[in-house]
Design goal:
The complex is a heterodimer of chains A (about 280) and B (about 260). With about 280 residues, chain A is mainly alpha-helical. Chain A contains ten helices and two strands. Chain A has a single domain, classed as MetI-like fold, CATH 1.10.3720.10. In chain A, about 75% of the residues lie in helices and about 0% in strands. In chain A, a hairpin with a 4-residue loop joins strand 1 and strand 2. The two termini of chain A are about 40 Å apart. The chains are: A mainly alpha (about 280), B alpha/beta (about 260). Chains A and B meet through helix 6 and helix 7 of A and helix 3, strand 6 and helix 8 of B.
Chain lengths: ~280, ~260
């Protein structure tokens, strides 16, 4: 009873602090964005020109760049991460499974700037040489670096989810004559799906919010690629723009408010993705 | 060694003539690490009857069942089903398991509806056919139809444990197995579920051979049929139910029946 008396206020205090933190973040983003939208209107979201010194704030190139980079990253990382998780969980002996897991945990712990440097030194020269690009800076480079960064999250979460399917379920399926492919598709993946989905959402969140590595390889060119699906051109992402320009924007200026609005757009994307995934999960 | 082989070679009385034998296990041994799990086990199962497999914990009963449907593959010896060596079964181990139904002690229903659980093992083309008659037949055979006929679309995990075990039985029966293996199927069930499953087994045993592992000696007597007594990886004695329980021939069997212990080293 005494322990409960001691713990309850601490738990409530922590909960209130988390709530206040979330609310203050929301207030900070919306109040700055409100100032911005009052001056430039909501149409700034689909304007294409971004020249802060001429008071032109078009968000579309960065929004498109963010979505492209994220799509490329997910397209590469989801199949690779799931395949790695399946091999590690279902096929490798325990020793190799531990080694694979440890490797992924180390990958997950590497700071993002290191990934950016790897991108600069390895990926950009590779793309420059093999795809005949001017510098290698491109949406493709940003997507590939992002995919490497989110791969451990997807793989580790998927592996945990697959491991959590009980031995009884596996043997019951085998006893019905299901082969390995059927076991995987009809038992393991459906039952592990809630855990895999959580991994994908976490990975999406990290991919959306990643700044440093993307900033180093994306090229930071505030222009929509020509044509818009040309992922070999340099481009801009919302995070890269914030990271690159925040130091130059005076606190309280319109440029500052525009950059905070970029943050709000990112937060709205993350919320939409999270809510839609949860809704699909509850329907399933 | 020869003596050991001779001692553990058993043939079920009455029905062990070659043309009536559905399953023939010959000189089956299984070793895991340094431990001998099964040692030169031999027995036959007749084409239609219940055979109860009794013995103390760790005797190798469950391992024997897992060898018989190739969940364990590291064994030596011969297992024949319908005069075909199961190692050379046409289509491999996956197809073999459709012919040899194995029901585990703990029911494992899949997180789908009751109907989908029963039809889970059928191929895609089989599922496209009209399955309602098969569904009803299997659920009736497992004495579950009356309890679930109005809620076949509900999730299977809403059933009680006893009902789930009968659902597992129906799921295995949907594949029309040639042999049914049961690993303590009523170990954790209430008396009513236990009775229903035993009734189902009696019905099923008129058409297919059933090998049922049980710790419950009363249940072995209720199931009648033949009894295999195993201890320490070996078959100690084989007889029909009345003979084994009333006139056990081996000292180990008498000890086990009286004190539920076996010292056969």
């Amino acid at each position: 009873m005494n322990k409960q008396r001691l713990l309850l206020p601490i738990v409530l205090l922590g909960c209130i602090a988390a709530l206040l933190g979330g609310l203050s973040l929301f207030w900070f983003l919306t109040s700055n964005a409100w100032n911005f939208f009052q001056s430039f209107g909501i149409s700034a979201l689909w304007q294409t020109e971004w020249y802060p010194y001429e008071d032109l704030y078009g968000f579309l190139p960065a929004i498109l760049g963010t979505l492209w980079a994220l799509c490329i990253a997910m397209l590469v990382a989801i199949p690779c991460g799931l395949a790695a998780a399946i091999v590690s969980s279902e096929l490798l002996p325990n020793t190799w499974q531990s080694i694979a897991r440890l490797s992924m945990e180390i990958l997950a712990g590497i700071p993002s700037v290191v990934y950016g440097l790897i991108g600069l030194w390895v990926l950009l020269p590779f793309l420059q040489e093999h795809l005949n690009l001017l510098t290698g800076h491109s949406l493709l480079a940003a997507g590939l670096i992002l995919s490497l960064m989110i791969l451990p999250t997807i793989m580790l979460m998927a592996q945990d989810a697959l491991d959590s399917v009980s031995q009884e379920q596996r043997e019951a399926a085998l006893n019905l004559g299901l082969d390995w492919n059927q076991l995987l598709i009809r038992i393991l993946l459906p039952q592990a799906w809630p855990g895999i989905r959580s991994g994908l959402l976490l990975a999406l969140g990290r991919g959306l919010g990643e700044t440093m590595a993307v900033m180093l390889v994306v090229g930071s060119l505030d222009r929509i690629p020509q044509p818009f699906y040309n992922i070999l051109e340099p481009a801009q992402t919302l995070t890269s723009r914030i990271g690159r320009e925040m130091g130059e924007a005076a606190f309280g200026s319109m440029h500052f408010a525009a950059l905070i609005t970029c943050g709000l757009v990112l937060a709205v994307f993350a919320t939409i993705i999270s809510l839609s995934a949860q809704r699909k999960g509850s329907i399933a | 060694m020869n003596t050991a082989k001779q001692n553990s070679r058993c043939s079920i009385p009455q029905t062990s003539t070659l043309n009536q034998t559905m399953v023939n296990v010959e000189n089956l041994s299984l070793q895991m690490g340094d431990k001998h799990i099964l040692q030169h086990v031999s027995f036959d199962l007749p084409a239609a009857d219940i055979t109860s497999l009794i013995g103390p914990s760790g005797a190798g009963k469950s391992s024997l069942l897992r060898c018989m449907n190739m969940l364990n593959t590291d064994w030596t010896g011969h297992i024949q089903v319908q005069h075909t060596d199961i190692r050379h079964w046409h289509g491999g181990a996956d197809i073999l398991r459709k012919h040899i139904g194995l029901i585990a002690q703990k029911p494992a229903v899949f997180p789908v509806s009751i109907a989908d659980n029963v039809l889970f093992g059928l191929s895609r083309s089989q599922q496209k056919e009209n399955t309602s008659a098969l569904l009803q037949h299997c659920l009736q055979q497992s004495a579950l139809w009356d309890e679930v006929k109005d809620r076949l679309d509900q999730p299977a995990n809403t059933l009680s444990i006893g009902q789930q075990q009968r659902l597992c039985l129906a799921r295995a029966l949907a594949l029309k197995p040639s042999v049914l293996l049961l690993d303590e199927p009523t170990a954790s069930l209430d008396p009513r579920s236990k009775q229903l499953i035993e009734l189902s087994l009696h019905e099923l045993a008129q058409n297919i051979p059933i090998l049922c592992v049980t710790h419950d000696l009363d249940q072995a007597q209720r199931l009648q049929g033949n009894i295999l007594f195993m201890c320490d990886g070996k078959i100690i004695e084989t007889a029909d139910c009345d003979s084994l329980f009333n006139h056990p021939q081996k000292l180990e069997t008498r000890e086990f029946l009286r004190w539920s212990v076996c010292d056969c080293d």
